[in-house]
Amino acid sequence: MRRPISAPEERGPDLSAIYGERAEFVWLTLQRLGVRHADLDDLAHDVFLVAHRKLERYDGSSRVTTWLFGICLRVAANYRRRAHVRLERPMGGAETYERVADAVEPEEVLGLREARARLSLVLDRIDLTKRAVFVMFEVEGLSCAEIAEQLGIPVGTVYSRLHAARRAFAQAFAATDQRGRRRGR
Fold it and tell me: Which residues, 6+ apart, have CB-to-CB distance to 140 below 8 Å?
């Protein structure tokens, strides 16, 4: 369990202490919210710029992680709305070519790439708050209690968001499956 960020009463919380203790949380949260790996560092920086601007208004009535999660949510939502994010398709770096060269079957690499693209498409259709809980539980294997503690929300809210996210995931997955069948895949 993380220790609370302490600060002198007259100054409020210290941003460098928040950054030191919560940078990994911000980075992981942005990743869970669908930010591409290449953009994670820049957007994490943006989150802390917003936190710096709003630090004087942070009253401590919520956990720092809850406050940062809210900022991450807005930064990620703005990121996803940008046109260049929707239109840009990265080709992959040297590590992609190494994996292709080392792979036994090129069809296997192509299948994995298509599966990742489909998963990304499905996850992009889930509300960001639900997506974060879904990824934390299903992919990272965190318990609902751990998720609630990290996000500063009640466990019941985690269960509710997880249930809704699973339903949305199933619907989005089925929709992409239908489109794939119509295209003859």
Answer: 32
Instruction: For 74-120, write each residue's pLDDT tens digit.
Output: 999 888 888 555 555 555 554 454 454 555 577 887 888 888 888 88
DSSP state of 91: -
How far is C-alpha 18 from the chain's CA centre?
19
Residue 39 sits at the vertex; the CA angle it makes with 108 and 51, to the nearest 5 degrees, is 145
Q: Is the dihedral of CA 132, 85, 25, 71 positive or negative?
A: negative
Token reading at 73: 């949510």
* All domains of the chain in start order, with CATH: 15-84 (1.10.1740.10), 97-182 (1.10.10.10)
- Over residues 31-40, the pLDDT tens digits come to 888 888 889 9
* Terminal-residue alpha carbon distance, the chain: 47
pTM of the model: 0.66
Residue 86, pLDDT score:
52
